[in-house]
Each structure stands twice: as C-alpha cells, then as structure tokens.
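Justification of computing resources. Each target in the renewal requires a structure prediction run like the one illustrated here; the chain below, 466 residues long, is used simply to show the kind of job we budget for.
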Amino acid sequence: MTAPPQVGQLQVEVVETSSLGDRSYLATDGRHAVVIDPQRDVDRIIGAAGRARIALVLETHVHNDYVSGGLELARLTGAEYGIAAADRAPFAHRPLQDGDLLEVSDRLRVRVVATPGHTFHHLSYVLEDAGEPVGVFTGGSLLYGTTGRTDLLGDEHSEELARHQHRSARKLADLLPAGAQIWPTHGFGSFCSATQASGDASTIGEQRAVNPALSLAEQDFVETTLAGLDAYPAYYAHMGIRNITGPEPLDLRAPAEATPGELAERLRRGEWVVDLRSRKAYVDSHLAGTVSLGLDGPMATWLGWMIEWGSPITLVGESREQIADAQRELVRIGIDQPAAAATGQPAQLAADPAQLTSTPTATFADLAAALDGRPGELPPADVVLDVRTNNEWRASHVEGAVHIPLYELASRVSEVPAGSVWVHCGSGYRAAAAASLLESAGRAVVAIDDSFADARPSGVALTTAE
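Resulting structure tokens:
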C-alpha cells in the first residue's frame, strides 16, 4: 500500500496488486470510507480502513482480469455494494446509473459517471469533497497515457467500444477541472490496458497533453487502439462470469503437504508442479519436470494463462510463507485450492537423486558468440526461441529466431525445430519458464537470463516484422 495522499479533507489510499498490474482504492474522511474495485483478498482493504467504517463498495465494471472482493467486503462490513444497474447482477446490490449522487457523509460524496468503452456498462466515480470534485476513479476508462483495452467482450465489439472509449475519456476531461486527480484501476502492467501505461500519478490537465484519447481524433484513436491490441491471458474467460454471478468467500487454508514420493508421482503424471523460487535458484537446482514461475514475477498471470483451466496444481517453495503468498496470488484469479504443496530445497524433495537437474544460462553476449560458432562450454545455438508477446516480436527480434509466445509454448513444443534451444524473453523470467517446459519435453536448452535491450549492443543481429 502506498501512503495516502491528502485530497482536501479527504484521503485516498492506494492498495496495489502489482503482480496483476491493478490498484484498488479506499477514500475516507476519517470516519467513513468508500472502496473502489477491491481485489478478492479483502483483509488488505479492511486493514487500510482502520477505524473508518466502510460504508460503500463500488465496482467500475465487471472485471475480466481478477475475481472481485466487492461482494465479500460488503457482506463482511455491512456496506452497500454498488454496481452498474445494466449489469443486472443476481445478488443484493445498489444499482447505479449515470448521474447518481452517493452521499456518504457531509464531506465525502461520489458522483456516478457512465464511461462505456472498456465494457459497455463501465462506470467512473467522481470523488467530491464538500461538493467540489477532487478526482475520479476511472477503472478501465482513462488511464495514465492510455485507456483500457476494448476487445475483452469479443473482437466483434472492439471497434464500437473503442469509439465509446474515446468519447468517455473526453466526457471526463470536459466534466472535471484540470487539477482533478485520476485514479485508474488498470494500467500498471495489467493486460487490461490497451498499451503500456506511463507514470504513477496524474491529473486531467496532464492527460490532456499526453493521452491519445484526448489528443487524437476519434477515427485515428480507434485505428491506433485496435492496431496495438495483443493477446490477453486465457483465464480472463472465467473471471467475468464468476464476478457477475457472485464469487465465493475466500479460502486460504493451507493445501495438503506432498511427500517426495507424491511429488514424483504428480510429475510422472505430467501435472503442473510449480517451483516458486527465484529463477536463479531454479536454474542452479530443481526437480526435473517442475515449472519455473517465481514469486518475484507475475506468477499467477502466466500460470493462469498457460494451464488448462481446472488442472491440478502443486506448489513447491522454500518455505510455508512462499506457499501462502502463492495461494493469495492464485485466489485473485480464481484458482482456489492447490492440489498439494511441498516446502524445502530440491535435494530434500527428491524421491530419487536422479530427479535433480540444472539449467545452463547465458547472456546475449554469449548468444552472439554461439551464433558466431563459439559457444564455449555451452550447447550450440541450433535454435533461438523468442517467447515474448506478438507486439514485442513485431517491434524487434533476433534474426532467424523462432517465435512462440510463452502462453502457447506448452501446446506447441513439437513445433520447435530440432537441436539445442537458446530461449529468451525480455528480461529472463519468461525464458526460465519456457526453459523448464522445454526440458520437460526432453529438449536441450539454454536460458538467456539477460535484458533484450542488451541484445544489439552485445552483437546480436536484430530485425523487425514486416
């Protein structure tokens, strides 16, 4: 959580979920509080509220990237739960429409503004201090330097929603003073952003100068927005349905402890056994067949994107704290109960020493040497595999490389050409995950643990997609 900024006599506290690139907010006058877009683990919100009574919980939209904690927070605190009337949620709630004024106290008021674009029924909430607008909670509408993506309800709606998004952004800009703060839910690494957001805070006036929705004509904005959209996590398909029907209460009970023999059996069956340690610890030693998705990166996003939904997942970590942290990350995307967990170092968790293995790593300078026929003690670079996203690939990639995004690799390993594989991403996190998948398929692999920005300076020839 970040330190709460003072906005007049009100305070707005940011509750970050950096692993998903999202923010929740708590606005308070010291006695009463309003919560906007809470994540599922609402204990963080209750802790942030302190002695203030949470009187109102608001959703800007039916979320596609995480399971909302709004319904549970309202149940626990007795707060009113406000969502768009047009969403017709089947549970008890306050149906909200454009222009509604929600008076929490003499000072703390929220005005509802319809801002379709990210979804058809998207709402933004103007925070008023004694009747004066001081900022707006924009959800997936106006973000920092961009807007929310418009294709989550299907490609057939993306152009229409992009036009709505343009008009909604301008509606907010026309409605609010230049100094009004903007508090978006998405845009901090979330795949709900149309493009990567920039900055950590902003105002309406600042966005007038830098945001394409406020600087481009409608048709130019639509074309630019649609052209920049890339794939988004597969688990998004399950989030909206779960949110609109009402998520179950949170369950963070510890999973069953797996013995070394049970771990070996799960690996033999080809189940997902996820190693939560850092990639540096993973490449040094790990159980063959485990997948590297460290807690120091967006573990839940990539796991939820790669697995067949509903598959059993076993977590392996160095401590119970790592397991608990992973559970908290996973419940946010609706993976509620891991099949099992195990804690300890790989040597302690191996049923047989033959299960232990390591992964060779390299830099882009090493790749340049290998492509020049000088791999040293490393395997030759028969194949260079790029597991970044489509947009990253199109912008620049290694000449002659094969491109399979990480989220498709598990089902497309057979498409990787024969020979030893040098795999890279943008920084090393996805490369380690990809290397673990390739190893499980019996491939010889080198994981490039380096920034892609160092590729060209290291002597690796790059090109762009036509």
